[in-house]
Design goal:
7 helices; alpha+beta; binds FE2/S2 (inorganic) cluster
């Protein structure tokens, strides 16, 4: 018999949670375990994971999909629809610039262009030194004092380009060692 030898292809089975470290895997498993019985559990799970890890790692998507009985595409779709969710770690400081109407009426558009230029990043980006992530936000409830910016948990109003530069120098200053 001179037929070609047959080749058996052994599929490589990826483990759910591959690409996550043990802490990330435990966090995702705990969030899914706690919330998956709720109707519409995907958003609460994504919030819980981002709140614990600072982002929703791309490698967590198949695990979340499997736990919630959804397709990977569905989970990806929700993460990319809501800009709030990030799939890469944020910088040490997260700066939100208000893009809503009242702030735009008093210069927020110029301020956001300045912010992007100064930091060298677009929205959802992080500076190369890891100091600042830049995010848009649609109203910070500080409309009378626009343009408004939130630096981490700190709300700042009437932000000029000069004031923005000062805020960013503080964010990018090396941390003082104690
Ligand atoms: S519109 Fe910017 S804080 Fe409300």
């Amino acid at each position: 018999m001179t037929g070609k030898p047959t080749r058996r292809v052994i599929p490589i089975q990826r483990e759910v949670g591959d690409g996550l470290d043990s802490r990330e895997r435990a966090t995702v498993a705990a969030a899914c375990g706690r919330l998956k019985a709720e109707a519409g559990s995907l958003l609460p799970v994504l919030h819980a994971v981002q709140s614990a890890l600072g982002h929703v790692p791309k490698a967590a998507v198949p695990m979340i999909a499997g736990e919630l009985n959804l397709s990977v595409a569905e989970v990806h779709g929700v993460i990319s629809f809501y800009h709030y969710f990030r799939t890469t770690p944020a910088g040490r400081h997260v700066v939100h610039v208000c893009r809503a109407e009242a702030c735009q009426a008093v210069g927020a558009t110029a301020l956001e262009a300045h912010a992007k230029r100064l930091l060298g990043i677009d929205y959802h980006g992080t500076t190369a030194d890891g100091a600042v992530s830049l995010e848009p936000v649609y109203c910070l409830g500080n409309c009378a004092l626009g343009p408004s910016v939130m630096v981490d948990e700190r709300l700042v109003g009437r932000v000029t380009t000069g004031r923005f530069d000062e805020l960013m120098s503080d964010c990018r200053a090396p941390a003082e060692s104690s």
